[in-house]
UniProtKB/TrEMBL annotation:
It comes from the Bacteria. The lineage of its organism: Bacteria, Bacillati, Actinomycetota, Actinomycetes, Micrococcales. Keywords: Antibiotic resistance, ATP-binding, Cell membrane, Membrane, Nucleotide-binding, Translocase, Transport. This is ABC transporter ATP-binding protein. One of its GO terms (molecular function) is ATP hydrolysis activity. Residues 4-229 form the ABC transporter domain. One of its GO terms (cellular component) is plasma membrane. It comes from Ornithinimicrobium pratense. Its main location: membrane. InterPro entries: AAA+_ATPase (IPR003593), ABC_transporter-like_ATP-bd (IPR003439), ABC_transporter-like_CS (IPR017871), ABC_transporter_ATP-binding (IPR050763), P-loop_NTPase (IPR027417). It is a peripheral membrane protein.
Length: 311
Protein backbone atom coordinates (compact mmCIF):
# COMPACT_ATOMS: atom_id res chain seq x y z
CA UNK A 1 0.00 0.00 0.00
CA UNK A 2 1.15 3.55 -0.69
CA UNK A 3 2.20 5.49 2.39
CA UNK A 4 3.17 8.75 0.72
CA UNK A 5 2.48 10.27 -2.63
CA UNK A 6 3.98 13.56 -3.78
CA UNK A 7 2.80 14.83 -7.17
CA UNK A 8 4.31 17.81 -8.96
CA UNK A 9 5.16 19.63 -5.75
CA UNK A 10 6.11 23.26 -6.38
CA UNK A 11 7.11 25.72 -3.68
CA UNK A 12 8.71 29.13 -3.93
CA UNK A 13 9.92 31.57 -1.30
CA UNK A 14 9.21 34.96 -2.86
CA UNK A 15 10.85 34.82 -6.27
CA UNK A 16 13.07 31.91 -5.32
CA UNK A 17 11.87 28.49 -6.48
CA UNK A 18 12.88 26.06 -3.73
CA UNK A 19 11.01 23.06 -5.14
CA UNK A 20 10.25 23.16 -8.83
CA UNK A 21 8.58 19.87 -9.69
CA UNK A 22 8.98 16.94 -7.32
CA UNK A 23 7.04 13.70 -7.56
CA UNK A 24 7.62 10.36 -5.86
CA UNK A 25 5.76 7.58 -4.11
CA UNK A 26 6.76 5.74 -0.95
CA UNK A 27 5.31 2.34 -0.15
CA UNK A 28 4.36 1.31 3.38
CA UNK A 29 7.28 -0.15 5.31
CA UNK A 30 9.88 1.34 2.98
CA UNK A 31 12.89 3.36 4.01
CA UNK A 32 12.96 6.04 1.33
CA UNK A 33 16.11 8.15 1.15
CA UNK A 34 16.35 11.67 -0.25
CA UNK A 35 19.77 12.90 -1.27
CA UNK A 36 20.91 15.97 -3.17
CA UNK A 37 23.17 19.02 -2.99
CA UNK A 38 22.69 21.83 -0.47
CA UNK A 39 19.67 23.94 -1.32
CA UNK A 40 18.22 21.29 -3.65
CA UNK A 41 14.83 21.49 -1.95
CA UNK A 42 14.97 18.39 0.23
CA UNK A 43 13.94 20.02 3.50
CA UNK A 44 11.22 22.08 1.84
CA UNK A 45 9.85 18.84 0.35
CA UNK A 46 9.74 16.98 3.67
CA UNK A 47 8.41 20.04 5.51
CA UNK A 48 5.60 20.21 2.96
CA UNK A 49 4.84 16.52 3.56
CA UNK A 50 4.73 17.24 7.29
CA UNK A 51 2.27 20.09 6.71
CA UNK A 52 4.78 22.68 7.92
CA UNK A 53 4.87 24.41 4.51
CA UNK A 54 1.99 25.05 2.15
CA UNK A 55 2.85 24.05 -1.42
CA UNK A 56 2.13 26.58 -4.16
CA UNK A 57 0.96 23.76 -6.38
CA UNK A 58 0.99 20.01 -6.62
CA UNK A 59 -0.49 17.48 -4.26
CA UNK A 60 0.66 15.45 -1.28
CA UNK A 61 -1.05 12.43 0.17
CA UNK A 62 0.01 11.01 3.53
CA UNK A 63 -1.80 7.69 4.00
CA UNK A 64 -4.57 9.15 1.86
CA UNK A 65 -4.71 12.41 3.85
CA UNK A 66 -3.82 15.97 2.89
CA UNK A 67 -1.17 17.43 5.24
CA UNK A 68 -2.79 20.88 5.22
CA UNK A 69 -6.51 20.07 5.13
CA UNK A 70 -6.22 17.06 7.42
CA UNK A 71 -3.47 18.51 9.59
CA UNK A 72 -4.69 17.04 12.89
CA UNK A 73 -5.07 13.52 11.48
CA UNK A 74 -1.71 13.67 9.72
CA UNK A 75 -0.04 14.79 12.95
CA UNK A 76 -1.25 11.58 14.61
CA UNK A 77 0.29 9.39 11.92
CA UNK A 78 3.49 11.22 11.05
CA UNK A 79 6.52 11.70 13.30
CA UNK A 80 9.01 14.38 12.36
CA UNK A 81 12.62 14.84 13.35
CA UNK A 82 13.75 17.95 11.57
CA UNK A 83 17.18 19.54 11.28
CA UNK A 84 18.40 21.19 14.45
CA UNK A 85 15.28 20.73 16.51
CA UNK A 86 15.62 22.69 19.68
CA UNK A 87 13.91 22.20 22.99
CA UNK A 88 13.82 24.29 26.15
CA UNK A 89 17.22 24.02 27.79
CA UNK A 90 15.91 23.07 31.20
CA UNK A 91 13.53 20.30 30.11
CA UNK A 92 14.57 16.88 31.30
CA UNK A 93 14.63 13.83 29.03
CA UNK A 94 11.74 12.03 30.73
CA UNK A 95 9.71 15.25 30.99
CA UNK A 96 10.10 15.95 27.28
CA UNK A 97 9.03 12.43 26.33
CA UNK A 98 6.06 12.44 28.71
CA UNK A 99 4.98 15.89 27.54
CA UNK A 100 5.19 15.01 23.85
CA UNK A 101 3.39 11.71 24.35
CA UNK A 102 0.49 13.65 25.91
CA UNK A 103 -0.02 15.42 22.56
CA UNK A 104 -1.14 12.18 20.87
CA UNK A 105 -4.29 10.08 20.98
CA UNK A 106 -2.49 6.75 20.88
CA UNK A 107 1.11 7.38 21.93
CA UNK A 108 3.88 4.84 22.18
CA UNK A 109 5.04 3.86 25.66
CA UNK A 110 7.54 6.68 26.20
CA UNK A 111 9.44 4.72 28.85
CA UNK A 112 9.98 1.89 26.37
CA UNK A 113 11.18 4.38 23.76
CA UNK A 114 13.53 5.94 26.29
CA UNK A 115 14.96 2.48 26.89
CA UNK A 116 15.12 1.63 23.17
CA UNK A 117 17.01 4.85 22.50
CA UNK A 118 19.41 4.22 25.38
CA UNK A 119 18.31 7.29 27.31
CA UNK A 120 16.97 5.75 30.50
CA UNK A 121 20.03 6.64 32.54
CA UNK A 122 19.69 10.23 31.29
CA UNK A 123 16.02 10.49 32.25
CA UNK A 124 16.62 13.31 34.76
CA UNK A 125 19.28 15.10 32.67
CA UNK A 126 18.35 18.53 31.31
CA UNK A 127 18.35 18.98 27.53
CA UNK A 128 21.21 21.49 27.66
CA UNK A 129 23.45 18.97 29.44
CA UNK A 130 23.00 16.22 26.84
CA UNK A 131 25.75 15.35 24.37
CA UNK A 132 25.14 15.73 20.63
CA UNK A 133 24.41 12.02 20.26
CA UNK A 134 22.00 12.05 23.17
CA UNK A 135 20.17 15.11 21.82
CA UNK A 136 19.90 13.37 18.47
CA UNK A 137 18.52 10.22 20.10
CA UNK A 138 16.03 12.28 22.09
CA UNK A 139 14.81 14.00 18.92
CA UNK A 140 14.37 10.59 17.27
CA UNK A 141 12.47 9.36 20.34
CA UNK A 142 10.22 12.43 20.18
CA UNK A 143 9.59 11.79 16.48
CA UNK A 144 8.45 8.28 17.39
CA UNK A 145 6.53 8.97 20.59
CA UNK A 146 3.23 9.49 18.78
CA UNK A 147 3.44 5.91 17.48
CA UNK A 148 3.64 7.17 13.90
CA UNK A 149 3.07 5.09 10.78
CA UNK A 150 5.58 7.30 8.97
CA UNK A 151 8.69 8.95 10.40
CA UNK A 152 10.54 11.79 8.68
CA UNK A 153 14.19 12.00 9.67
CA UNK A 154 16.11 14.99 8.30
CA UNK A 155 19.89 14.99 8.73
CA UNK A 156 19.65 12.16 11.19
CA UNK A 157 23.33 11.78 11.97
CA UNK A 158 24.85 15.12 11.00
CA UNK A 159 27.26 16.17 13.72
CA UNK A 160 27.68 12.69 15.16
CA UNK A 161 30.96 10.82 15.31
CA UNK A 162 31.30 7.62 13.23
CA UNK A 163 30.46 5.28 16.11
CA UNK A 164 27.36 7.24 17.08
CA UNK A 165 26.28 7.30 13.43
CA UNK A 166 26.53 3.53 13.19
CA UNK A 167 24.61 3.12 16.47
CA UNK A 168 21.90 5.40 15.09
CA UNK A 169 21.71 3.34 11.89
CA UNK A 170 21.12 0.18 13.90
CA UNK A 171 18.40 1.98 15.78
CA UNK A 172 16.70 3.08 12.57
CA UNK A 173 16.84 -0.50 11.31
CA UNK A 174 15.07 -1.60 14.47
CA UNK A 175 12.41 1.08 13.99
CA UNK A 176 12.00 -0.02 10.36
CA UNK A 177 11.59 -3.62 11.53
CA UNK A 178 8.56 -2.54 13.55
CA UNK A 179 6.89 -1.59 10.25
CA UNK A 180 7.30 2.20 10.37
CA UNK A 181 7.74 3.81 6.94
CA UNK A 182 10.78 6.08 7.02
CA UNK A 183 11.60 9.12 4.91
CA UNK A 184 15.26 9.84 5.39
CA UNK A 185 16.99 13.02 4.22
CA UNK A 186 20.75 12.68 4.37
CA UNK A 187 24.03 14.12 3.16
CA UNK A 188 25.84 10.88 3.83
CA UNK A 189 26.00 8.48 0.90
CA UNK A 190 26.99 5.53 3.10
CA UNK A 191 23.97 6.21 5.29
CA UNK A 192 21.61 6.46 2.32
CA UNK A 193 23.04 3.29 0.80
CA UNK A 194 22.91 1.29 4.00
CA UNK A 195 19.44 2.28 5.17
CA UNK A 196 17.35 3.04 2.10
CA UNK A 197 15.26 0.61 0.09
CA UNK A 198 14.97 3.32 -2.57
CA UNK A 199 16.49 6.75 -2.99
CA UNK A 200 15.37 9.92 -4.75
CA UNK A 201 18.15 12.20 -5.97
CA UNK A 202 16.84 15.78 -5.84
CA UNK A 203 18.70 18.49 -7.70
CA UNK A 204 17.60 22.05 -8.38
CA UNK A 205 14.11 21.38 -7.01
CA UNK A 206 13.53 18.40 -9.31
CA UNK A 207 13.87 14.63 -9.02
CA UNK A 208 16.92 13.63 -11.02
CA UNK A 209 16.48 9.89 -10.37
CA UNK A 210 14.62 7.42 -8.16
CA UNK A 211 15.84 3.87 -7.75
CA UNK A 212 17.26 1.35 -5.32
CA UNK A 213 20.82 2.16 -4.21
CA UNK A 214 22.10 -0.63 -6.46
CA UNK A 215 19.90 0.60 -9.31
CA UNK A 216 21.25 4.16 -9.05
CA UNK A 217 24.81 2.83 -9.06
CA UNK A 218 24.06 0.55 -12.01
CA UNK A 219 22.66 3.52 -13.95
CA UNK A 220 26.07 5.21 -13.83
CA UNK A 221 28.32 2.20 -13.92
CA UNK A 222 28.54 2.18 -17.69
CA UNK A 223 31.50 4.44 -16.92
CA UNK A 224 34.48 2.43 -15.71
CA UNK A 225 37.82 3.28 -14.18
CA UNK A 226 41.08 1.36 -14.18
CA UNK A 227 44.07 2.45 -12.10
CA UNK A 228 47.62 1.11 -12.16
CA UNK A 229 51.32 1.94 -12.10
CA UNK A 230 53.50 1.08 -15.09
CA UNK A 231 56.59 -1.10 -14.94
CA UNK A 232 58.35 1.12 -17.50
CA UNK A 233 57.63 4.37 -19.36
CA UNK A 234 54.56 4.30 -21.56
CA UNK A 235 53.40 6.65 -24.30
CA UNK A 236 50.06 8.06 -23.08
CA UNK A 237 48.66 8.18 -26.62
CA UNK A 238 48.74 4.35 -26.77
CA UNK A 239 45.84 4.47 -24.34
CA UNK A 240 44.08 7.70 -25.34
CA UNK A 241 43.69 6.40 -28.90
CA UNK A 242 41.79 3.28 -27.76
CA UNK A 243 38.09 3.52 -28.69
CA UNK A 244 36.89 2.45 -25.19
CA UNK A 245 39.00 5.10 -23.39
CA UNK A 246 37.61 8.57 -22.65
CA UNK A 247 40.30 10.07 -20.38
CA UNK A 248 43.79 9.19 -19.14
CA UNK A 249 45.23 11.02 -16.13
CA UNK A 250 48.60 10.45 -14.53
CA UNK A 251 49.01 11.60 -10.94
CA UNK A 252 52.21 10.87 -9.03
CA UNK A 253 53.01 7.94 -11.27
CA UNK A 254 49.52 6.48 -10.96
CA UNK A 255 47.56 6.08 -14.18
CA UNK A 256 43.82 6.60 -14.04
CA UNK A 257 42.02 5.50 -17.18
CA UNK A 258 38.29 6.17 -17.57
CA UNK A 259 36.15 4.71 -20.29
CA UNK A 260 33.37 2.39 -21.34
CA UNK A 261 32.73 -0.99 -22.90
CA UNK A 262 35.58 -3.47 -22.60
CA UNK A 263 37.85 -0.94 -20.91
CA UNK A 264 39.88 -3.33 -18.79
CA UNK A 265 40.66 -5.81 -21.56
CA UNK A 266 41.40 -3.03 -24.10
CA UNK A 267 43.86 -1.43 -21.69
CA UNK A 268 45.41 -4.79 -20.78
CA UNK A 269 45.95 -5.64 -24.46
CA UNK A 270 47.49 -2.22 -25.19
CA UNK A 271 49.86 -2.59 -22.24
CA UNK A 272 50.81 -6.12 -23.31
CA UNK A 273 51.56 -4.89 -26.85
CA UNK A 274 53.86 -2.25 -25.35
CA UNK A 275 55.38 -4.90 -23.07
CA UNK A 276 54.41 -2.89 -20.03
CA UNK A 277 53.19 -4.58 -16.87
CA UNK A 278 50.35 -2.92 -14.92
CA UNK A 279 51.34 -2.96 -11.27
CA UNK A 280 49.00 -2.42 -8.34
CA UNK A 281 46.07 -2.69 -10.75
CA UNK A 282 42.66 -1.59 -9.43
CA UNK A 283 39.32 -1.53 -11.13
CA UNK A 284 37.20 1.11 -9.42
CA UNK A 285 34.02 -0.11 -7.84
CA UNK A 286 31.22 2.37 -8.45
CA UNK A 287 29.36 3.58 -5.38
CA UNK A 288 26.57 5.96 -4.49
CA UNK A 289 28.98 8.92 -4.45
CA UNK A 290 29.57 8.32 -8.16
CA UNK A 291 25.84 8.15 -8.80
CA UNK A 292 25.38 11.43 -6.90
CA UNK A 293 28.05 13.09 -9.04
CA UNK A 294 26.57 11.69 -12.23
CA UNK A 295 23.05 12.87 -11.43
CA UNK A 296 23.82 16.26 -9.91
CA UNK A 297 27.17 17.22 -11.44
CA UNK A 298 28.51 17.86 -7.93
CA UNK A 299 30.31 15.82 -5.30
CA UNK A 300 28.32 14.99 -2.19
CA UNK A 301 29.07 17.33 0.70
CA UNK A 302 30.13 15.76 3.93
CA UNK A 303 28.81 18.03 6.61
CA UNK A 304 31.60 18.77 9.08
CA UNK A 305 31.14 16.80 12.25
CA UNK A 306 30.27 19.40 14.84
CA UNK A 307 32.05 19.97 18.11
CA UNK A 308 29.39 17.94 19.80
CA UNK A 309 30.47 14.61 21.18
CA UNK A 310 28.40 11.50 20.73
CA UNK A 311 28.29 10.56 24.37
N1 LIG B 1 12.21 30.09 4.66
C1 LIG B 1 12.89 30.31 3.53
N2 LIG B 1 12.87 31.51 2.93
C2 LIG B 1 13.54 31.73 1.79
N3 LIG B 1 14.27 30.80 1.13
C3 LIG B 1 14.34 29.58 1.70
C4 LIG B 1 13.66 29.27 2.91
N4 LIG B 1 13.92 27.97 3.22
C5 LIG B 1 14.72 27.51 2.24
N5 LIG B 1 14.98 28.46 1.33
C6 LIG B 1 15.76 28.32 0.09
O1 LIG B 1 15.13 27.34 -0.72
C7 LIG B 1 16.08 26.47 -1.32
C8 LIG B 1 15.81 25.04 -0.90
O2 LIG B 1 16.08 24.93 0.50
P1 LIG B 1 15.94 23.55 1.27
O3 LIG B 1 16.27 23.83 2.70
O4 LIG B 1 14.63 22.94 0.98
O5 LIG B 1 17.08 22.70 0.57
P2 LIG B 1 17.84 21.42 1.10
O6 LIG B 1 18.00 20.54 -0.09
O7 LIG B 1 17.16 20.84 2.28
O8 LIG B 1 19.23 22.04 1.52
P3 LIG B 1 20.27 21.54 2.66
O9 LIG B 1 20.80 20.24 2.18
O10 LIG B 1 21.28 22.63 2.63
O11 LIG B 1 19.51 21.45 3.94
C9 LIG B 1 17.44 26.99 -0.88
O12 LIG B 1 17.95 27.79 -1.89
C10 LIG B 1 17.15 27.78 0.37
O13 LIG B 1 18.09 28.81 0.53
Amino acid sequence: MTALEVRHLHKRYGEHVAVDDVSFTVEEGEVFGIIGPNGAGKTTTVESIAGLRTPDSGSISVLGLDPIKDRAEVRERLGVQLQESSFPDAIKVAEALELYSSFYRDPADWRELMELLGLTDKRTTQYKALSGGQKQRLSIALALVGNPKIAILDELTTGLDPQARRDTWRLIERVRDTGVTILLVTHFMDEAERLSDRIAVIDGGRVAAVDTPAGLIAQVSAVQQVQFRVSQPLDKSLLTELPDVTTVEITQGRWLVTGRGQLLSSVARALARAQVVAEDLRVAQRNLDDAFVAFTGRAPESPEPSERKAD
